[in-house]
Design brief:
The structure is a single chain. The chain is α/β, with parallel strands linked by helices and 224 residues long. The chain folds into two domains: 2-152, SPOUT methyltransferase, trefoil knot domain (Alpha/beta knot); 167-223, Trp Operon Repressor, Chain A. It contains seven helices and ten strands. The chain has helices at residues 20-27, 64-77, 95-101, 119-124, 141-152, 162-166, 200-218, and strands at 2-7, 32-37, 50-52, 60-62, 82-92, 106-110, 116-117, 128-131, 185-186, 189-190. The strands form three sheets. A five-stranded parallel beta sheet has the order 2-1-6-5-8. Helix 1 links the parallel strand 1 and strand 2 (32-37). The longest helix has 19 residues, at 200-218. It is elongated, with a radius of gyration of 22 Å.
């Protein structure tokens, strides 16, 4: 998989994309990240990529030209499955969406910034808008890293134990059952006896019951 990220703050992506599973996936050749500084496609003095809104509203707006030029070059070299814009009013990122995106070959993620972007970018250049929650951030770099993390960890080989990813919360529409490790007793707090029984069928039933109970209590909306 190749993921191109368009941003005005490339330095904000240095750490998230180069550690843990994302770095190991790159080392294995499973994913390539290409970060593009939109200022490199600006023709204005001081490489500016924003301007005032025609409406007179406070705040600066990201211009269409640098985004268009950058996308034109990228799309002349390969076909992209999606051109994603990180937006507060996009579709909320969830596990089914991450699963679907993990099957793609080439993705572009455009990081929003300033007051917003020229709406023509959203009308004509973007194929999908994604939000990571109902709140506003300084820019789209953190959401882009979140999207990349959620997607790349699902690529076969990215995680050493692929079964682990299949058992994650939300993969089956439920929260994950509680997990424990050694010691079996600490400070008087014991691991549930069923998990020490060796009875795989009973343990599977317990996990499902716990997942249903936790989902019903903590995230009842998922059961709808």
């Amino acid at each position: 998989m190749r993921i191109d990220i368009l941003t005005v703050m490339p330095e904000a992506l240095d750490s998230p994309l180069h550690c843990s599973i994302l770095q190991r996936a790159q080392d294995k050749g499973l994913v390539e990240f290409h970060i593009h500084n939109l200022r490199d496609w600006s023709t204005r003095p001081h490489r500016k990529v924003d301007d005032y809104a025609f409406s007179g509203e406070a705040g600066m707006v990201m211009q269409i030209e640098p985004v268009y030029r950058c996308l034109q070059q990228l799309q002349s070299e390969r076909t992209y499955d999606e051109v994603i814009f990180t937006s507060p009013d996009g579709d909320i990122l969830d596990q089914p969406m991450a699963n679907a995106l993990s099957l793609c070959e080439n993705l572009v993620i455009l990081c929003g910034h300033y007051k917003g972007v020229d709406y023509r970018i959203r009308e004509h250049l973007v194929t999908r808008e994604i939000s990571i929650g109902d709140y506003v951030l300084t820019g789209g770099e953190l959401p882009a890293a979140v999207i990349a993390d959620a997607v790349v960890r699902l690529i076969p080989g990215a995680i050493g134990d692929e079964q682990s990813a299949l058992n994650d919360s939300f993969q089956d529409g439920l929260l994950e059952a509680p997990v424990y490790t050694r010691p079996a007793e600490f400070n008087g707090w014991r691991v549930p006896d069923i998990l020490l029984s060796g009875n795989e069928a009973a343990i599977a039933d317990w996990k499902l019951t716990q997942a249903l109970e936790r989902t019903r209590r903590l995230r009842p909306n998922l059961l709808k």
